[in-house]
Amino acid sequence: MAERLLCQLNLDGEAPLLKVCLGGSELVEGRLLAALRVVLASDVETVQKHDLNTLKSIDVEAPLGIANEVAAFRTVIALCVIALGHFPTKIMEDESLLQKGVSDSTELAIQFRIQKKSVIIDVMRDLTRRVKLLSSKETATAQG
């Protein structure tokens, strides 16, 4: 089941497109979100009740349950941490380099690097906020 869906999302099979995007108009690219929701799902029957567009949409709140959604968001947050770790510098170091004065082309490169990191950090903040909201709903439901 999961493998078939990953093929439909072009994340598996022949010539998969493994590059996914974060930030922008889509907070998390739908293909990544759907893949995580499916891979982390404990109940195949629940997955089969939803079409691919529902599973790809961040606007559909927790289609496979709150625990699944929290796990998917936390996985994306972890991927963001890994992505940030691949940059050679931290934002503060980049800003310090800009203050020291660099060539125009280096300044552009540093500003671009800062923007990329800022987008990733914004995604992490948004998803962390969503995890907190979902966790509070789960707690309220459990207590109700």
TrEMBL record:
<dbReference type="InterPro" id="IPR015353">
    <property type="entry name" value="Rubisco_LSMT_subst-bd"/>
</dbReference>
<dbReference type="Pfam" id="PF09273">
    <property type="entry name" value="Rubis-subs-bind"/>
</dbReference>
<feature type="domain" description="Rubisco LSMT substrate-binding">
    <location>
        <begin position="5"/>
        <end position="119"/>
    </location>
</feature>
<dbReference type="InterPro" id="IPR036464">
    <property type="entry name" value="Rubisco_LSMT_subst-bd_sf"/>
</dbReference>
<protein>
    <recommendedName>
        <fullName>Rubisco LSMT substrate-binding domain-containing protein</fullName>
    </recommendedName>
</protein>
